[in-house]
Amino acid sequence: MLKLNSDHYDDVSKGRQLSRPVLVVGAGPVGLTAALMLARHGTPVRIIDSNASKTELSKALIVWKRTLQVLDPIIPWEQFLNGHILAKRAIFLHDGKKIATLAFDSANQCIPQGVFIPQSATEELLISSLQSYGVQVERETKLIDFKCDESGVMCSLSTGDSFETSWLIGCDGAHSTVRHKLKIEFPGSTINRRWILADVELDGDTPEESLIMEQGSGGTLGFFPISTNRWRLIADDGPYEDGVTYEEPTFKDIKNIIEAKSSMRCSLRCTHWISQFSVNERQVENYVHGRVLLAGDAAHVHSPAGGQGMNTGIQDAVNLAWKVSLVEMGVASPDFLNTYQEERHPIGSMVVKNSGRMLKAAMIDNPVLSAIQRIGMHFALQIPFVHDQISSFLSEDSVNYRGCSLAATAKGKYRPGDIFPDFKWGECSATNLLRANEASHICAKEENSLRLGFGGFEVTNIVSPELIEIFGGDVLIRPDGVIAAIGESNINCWIDKISNSY
Question: Count of CB atoms within 10 A of residue 151's CB?
Fold first, then answer.
């Protein structure tokens, strides 16, 4: 039988009335997710942002499959697709000729590999869900300073408010005030290259549900769909030159870029947003600094190639929130948060490295190397294994925590540390079983159910002999949708480890 220390867990799960709210700084997608997940787990939270309102810009434009999965228990993935564009393929062109196509195949799965959706719409979904827990973003409010010790963090806000929080979570972007106040380094480099970005409306023949990457004598240009006839354009404008002053790009500049670099039969109707940027590749060495925690761009920044930034940050927040809640409940010690660093820092490092490689591939100027690259891409993407590996990297479907301290060593297709898999289960995805659940336990018989939540989390028992056969035993699923343990004895050991080892 599965066992729990009933006296301890019963006391924890009855109340969850915690005195000091966690403070989340930054109300972009990462901060909103952190606050939402904390509220979901019953942890009091405040979230502040220096801006007067949410963004109205498209900014981060794609939500990949792993992000859809980790948010699905609260925001069903169908809501992201509603009125937006399914990501079906990436088409690679050189001087107008198709080199390769990368299909985002969702065969035998229900959740799409990705959805093109403006960041403004993503924030709307997160804010609406957060408000359902009674939490409002405190706008036009800045973090001025903070001082921390072992018991908490004393914060000073621009409103004149000073209060003590149990945890301070910095989700305030690449120029993070939280990170600067910690006085820690942000090691990495800036790539000496000017990139131009614009949200545009186009007239003409444009492919549907596809992102387009064009290379050729005119340089590199990417198109990403936003809505019907509306696209995000990103163009490589070459290295910065010493002594040259670069003005903000204009409508005329964007028109010239399309005419010079694009082979698509289209013309520029209008622009909605134009900007320029340089790429930084940086990552802090540690996401955990006592009672101050970093997530998203505050912890790692990289090339926009692959659309990984917001997605990685949202997944940081989901991983972190349930662990903070468990510590706040008194079930685990603050040392438990080292598992956040252990699990998420390597993922951030991998994203910085791989997105950088994609960017460098797009900047190849040497005609011989460019030809070799085209030939290699053409043949490589016809190999199913290579095709699937690249697609899995982009959708972040391959992210796992195997080998980490919270994932016991195991064999089999599904293992501890893996995300709960998306496979067709009747008329829907198996992941639908996790919706509205804080944690889930799959068992063969009702008498094997977990009677109490581990920690203060409520566990939904799913009685399914069919799923037991697929997984090879009872399965405990963490609040972030990751498989915690498989098999009755392993589940008991995992629960004991949380409360006794941290």
Answer: 9
Three-class SS of residue 113? coil
Q: 3-state DSSP call for residue 78?
A: helix
Calculate the CA dihedral of residues 161, 166, 169, 172 and round it to 10 degrees: 10
- Domain boundaries 424-500, corresponding CATH code: 3.40.30
Query: Could you read off the pLDDT of 126-174 as tens digits, one per residue?
Result: 999 999 999 999 999 999 999 999 889 999 999 999 999 999 999 999 9
- Unique residue bearing structure tokens 């629960």: 495
> How far is the C-alpha of 420 from the C-alpha of 481, rounded, in Å?
6
Query: How long is the chain?
Result: 502
**Strand 168-170 versus strand 162-165 pairing type:** unpaired
CATH class held by domain 188-281: alpha beta
Amino acid at 315: Q
Identity of the residue numbered 270: C
> Please, where in the chain does CATH 3.50.50.60 lie?
18-61+119-187+284-362
Q: With both helix axes pointing from N to C terminus, report the angle between 338-362 and 309-328 in degrees, rounded to the nearest 10.
A: 180
Summarize the chain as % helix, strand, coil (round to 5): 35, 25, 40
Give the pLDDT of residue 454: 63
Q: Which of 108, 100, 104 is nearest to 89 (CA)?
A: 104
Residue 154 and residue 164 in contact, taking contact as beta carbons nearer than 8 Å: yes
User: What confidence score (pLDDT) does residue 101 get?
Assistant: 94
Which element (helix H / strand E) includes 352?
helix 338-362
DSSP-derived pairing of the beta strands 143-148 and 153-157: antiparallel
CB neighbour list of residue 356: distance below 8 Å, 6 or more residues apart? 281, 302, 303, 305
H or E segment at 268?
strand 266-283
Does residue 17 have a pLDDT over 80? no
Question: Residue 5 has what pLDDT?
Answer: 41
* CATH fold of the domain at 18-61+119-187+284-362: FAD/NAD(P)-binding domain (3.50.50)
Element (H, E) at 387: helix 384-395
